């Protein structure tokens, strides 16, 4: 027995290394298997709902009052997703259509919606990249390379327009953007930032210091760290330049035009194209015409462009010697960007107050972030990470949402725990009809696209409305219930009275801004994520059953707001 034990001990000593190797191999195999399974789950989650299916409702959710609308036999289902609030009374409605009492959404539902909400980012990014790779071989930049120059983000050498594309930036992309804005030079820095201007930077740098590869084109140089690769811009056709000039209206001329506007030109037979081109070369966003006089400048306290005059009063503006011509002027927006409010940065010290910018999806949160960033000069953060927004210059997207380095944090969450993490919040509310359509467009066509008629007429649209309409109501009600300090902002009021409402938001964030900066924001109000026009549909997307459902939620939210001493919803929300 002793001899057998001795032999076994000797064998184990000789095979010690072998056992160690087998143990390591076993652990590695287990780790790889776990990673593979995790990846599979993530991919399944990121794909979201197949095109032929509606939003799935797990079996566990049916126990808390959440029902899959596809399983309902009643062709006129009532709402099942509402959030209860103490002290609120149910609106008096017909029993057949009366809403069930609002029940709180559990964590599973929030995860489900969050996964669906961010489906587009994960699906769309590879498509954009693939499309660009195909374009890369066919698009070559035009114009002359002027060299490598120094670049200071605080005192920029190219003072015109600036934009970012942290995924697809190329030399040709930057040149095209600067050409559309009527600039002569395009400069690229950090591989992803584009700057435009009409004068070359003064300080040249060594050629090898421009060593950052363009994010969207391998082998091409797009500046470097604090360095600009500068190219000339090929001039656009005259017809295309004219399309980029926007008529702002007829306005009363300031008392002293020379003091109000920093550049001027007197030209016989002056035309809009002459004045616009002159002001574009001077890098001013406004071209003002009075008779044969052309003035260039910005909207200011002296000339805020808020109260336009009747267009008939400007009929004599082309003749400055006439009484009417001397008092009124024609104002045009040149392709040049107003850059007085484009500088942004992270907070230098951590914010003591943790502020949320909360809204239902499709309520204009991205637009509100654009306005806040340009008004305050500070980046906004996000509870999520949206690569499309980050690529277009919302640098707070990559910053951890609890870093407190941003002025406020975007969120669509509405659970008690998520709400109570914030010290205060700007609650942005939009007409649910508009919000639902905007979010449906984003879900199927991205931030700037439109869903197809096939999407609207499929079963996905009614299922979407059945689920998301109740979320619109529950989102507002839960923030009213659990929010500590709220500023209610209605999207429609912000759009109609931008400066006064933006002032309220900035004061709520405890930031002081100048009047000129706010006017600059108003001049750049659209940002990079405005859909081009309203795509008209030849059918009504909302059925009567949908309208009955949404209208009951509108009445409930309106009553809740008034119960908390806030102004109710705008009249255009409330059904009549």
Walk me through this protein's architecture:
This protein is an alpha+beta fold and 576 residues long. The chain is 38% helix and 14% strand. Among the domains are: 145-238; 245-333, no CATH class; 355-529 and 540-573, Rossmann fold (3-Layer(aba) Sandwich), CATH 3.40.50.300. It has a five-stranded antiparallel beta sheet with strand order 1-7-3-4-2. Strands 8-12-10-11-9 form a five-stranded antiparallel beta sheet. Strands 14-15-13-16-17 form a five-stranded parallel beta sheet, sandwiched between helices. The longest helix has 32 residues, at 16-47. It is globular and about 115 Å long. The N and C termini lie far apart (97 Å).
What secondary-structure arrangement, pairings included, does this model have?
Elements: H1 2-14, H2 16-47, H3 107-117, H4 119-136, E1 145-150, E2 162-164, H5 171-180, E3 185-189, E4 193-197, E5 213-214, E6 217-221, E7 227-232, H6 238-243, E8 246-252, H7 257-260, E9 263-266, H8 272-281, E10 286-290, E11 293-297, H9 323-327, E12 328-333, E13 355-359, H10 365-376, E14 381-382, H11 387-391, E15 409-411, H12 416-420, E16 424-429, H13 432-445, H14 453-457, H15 460-482, E17 486-490, H16 491-496, H17 498-508, H18 515-523, H19 544-563
Parallel strand pairs: 13-15, 13-16, 14-15, 16-17
Antiparallel strand pairs: 1-7, 2-4, 3-4, 3-7, 5-6, 8-12, 9-11, 10-11, 10-12
